[in-house]
Amino acid sequence: MRLLSILQKAWERNGHIKALPFAWTGGKSLPSLKIKKFKPEEKKKGSKVLFFEGCLARLFFPEIRESVSSYLSRLGFSFSSPHDLSCCGAPSYHLAHREDVLTLAKRNLKVINREAPDFILTVCPTGNAMLKKIYPRFAPEFEAWKSKIFDFTEFLVKKGFSPKEKALDQKKEIFYHYPCHYLYDLKLKEEPIRLLQSLGFRPKEESEPLTCCGFCGIFSFKNPDISAHLWEKKRKKIMECSTPLIATDCPGCLFQLRGNLKNEKPPFKIFHTAELLARLVNTDKDHKEFFPSDSDPDS
Predict the structure, then answer these.
(1) CA atoms lying within 13 Å on the CB side of residue 281
(2) End-to-end CA distance of the chain
(3) DSSP conformational letter for 183
(4) Where are the alpha helices (DSSP H) in 159-217?
(5) One fold for 44-158 and 173-294
(6) In the chain, where are the structural domains located?
(7) Burial degree of 269 (CB within 10 A; 0-12, 13-18, 19+)
């Protein structure tokens, strides 16, 4: 990955790799690799949080980790993101490579036992489902950690750590995309809406049925035509909502949305909810960076 992060510079433009002539890319531009070492902040005395980052967030979206770290540190939590945590094993699981899943589960269990956290937080619903539902089937000793595993947004809302609510502004519309694993596997639907509302946004949801963005992890690379068909359904729903600001809770969906909407008009701004939280709370900024027209009457 470090070698690829250097080689990609030949095709990189503004944080994206321009569309490559391979079927599996679906003709879309891809986010460039961002391998960035984590620099932990000063240890706090509060409850210890182990952050299970996941491969996509680690390789492409390190800003999500920094957003989570800064907000939790602000609350007084001791934050840990061990460099030796491995892939959750979802690609291996979906390809029926059981031995690989068991190897990864035991490797990650060793790190978690060593760290002995009070909570394990994820920002990827696929990784969350692997840890909470699949790992105990492959490594029964992981059962002891199930009750400590939370999605980041779920953790803030259910544990009462959401920011103090800002006044809800009807003009600050934001489209929320529900990741499939988030909605159907983790059964989370109200939590992201409540968090966005606490930040002063007015969330807009697509009409039923809620659609998949087409990323689907390794599926989109093995079945690019089906993935493209799913994306077109999602694109139609996004355009119908006519809201250029988008939030989601999955790095995979972020990968798909940013890659496919990069050249669409109007320009779209797409964030993980953790990023929005950090930008509005940690920096004490207002919504103008998301809605620049408010400060420019001619725009």
Answers:
(1) 26
(2) 41
(3) I
(4) 180, 190-198
(5) yes
(6) 44-158, 173-294
(7) middle
| Phi and psi torsions of 149, nearest 5° | -95, 125
Of 31, 280, 272, which Cα lies nearest the Cα of 169?
Answer: 280
Question: How far is 40 from 212, CA to CA, in rounded Å?
Answer: 35
**Average pLDDT over the chain, rounded to whole?**
86
Please give the chain's pLDDT, 299 residues, in tens: 666 655 556 556 666 565 554 444 455 566 666 666 666 555 667 899 999 999 889 888 989 999 999 999 999 999 999 989 999 999 999 889 999 999 999 999 999 999 999 999 999 999 999 999 999 999 999 999 999 999 999 999 999 999 887 666 667 999 999 999 999 999 999 999 999 999 999 999 998 899 999 998 777 878 889 999 999 999 999 999 989 999 999 999 998 999 889 888 889 999 999 999 999 887 666 677 787 665 443 43
3-state secondary structure of 211: coil
**CATH number of this structure's domain 44-158:** 3.40.50
The CATH classification number of 173-294 equals 3.40.50
Burial 109-136 (b: 16+ CB within 10 A, else e): bebbeeeebebbbbbbbbbbbbbbebbb
Cα–Cα–Cα angle for 160, 123, 33, rounded to 5 degrees:
145
